[in-house]
Design brief:
SRF-like, Floral homeotic protein APETALA 3, 4 strands, mainly alpha, two-stranded antiparallel ribbon, 3 domains
Length: 161
């Protein structure tokens, strides 16, 4: 019995579309496996469905990475260099941010203050004062059962808990 030709267009019914996708995917993977066995070909198929699932077929004699490396070698192209350069640039930026944050932490602890200008020292003092104010305000809202034994000391009209 001969099969009729079908018109190649999007299948509107979601259930029929999923069934067709599954059958054709399995058929494609079967053909890839046959190519591998019959012709000693290296085959890799990566398929992403509309539902977000990823399926993959890779010949048993290779890996997808090995095939992509061979593809690059034979075509004399580099698939990864632009991505590698972006990652290197991002890493450099993150290292700079890390260095600056460590420096800021040291300065807030009172270390590494020698290279600061008077303006930066004043800004740092203002930041520390703001932090202390926020901490003192927060202490007011802590319920008494959570406070340890409170000892009050008075020094020039400032109370320390």
């Amino acid at each position: 019995m001969a099969r009729g030709k079908i018109q190649i267009k999007r299948i509107e019914n979601a259930t029929n579309r999923q069934v067709t996708f599954s059958k054709r995917r399995n058929g494609l993977f079967k053909k890839a496996q046959e190519l591998t066995v019959l012709c000693d070909a290296k085959v890799s198929i990566i398929m992403c469905s509309s539902t977000g699932k990823v399926q993959e077929y890779v010949s048993s004699s290779t890996t997808t990475k090995q095939l992509l490396d061979e593809y690059q070698r034979r075509l004399k192209i580099d698939l990864w260099s632009s991505q590698y350069e972006k990652m290197q640039k991002n890493l450099k930026n993150l290292k700079e941010v890390n260095i600056n944050l460590k420096k800021e932490i040291r300065q807030r602890l009172g270390e590494s203050l020698n290279d600061l200008s008077l303006k930066k020292l004043s800004d740092l003092e203002q930041d520390v004062d703001n932090c202390l104010r926020i901490i003192r305000e927060r202490k007011v809202f802590i319920p008494l059962p959570f406070l340890p034994a409170v000892v009050m000391c008075q020094t020039s009209n400032n109370y320390f808990y």
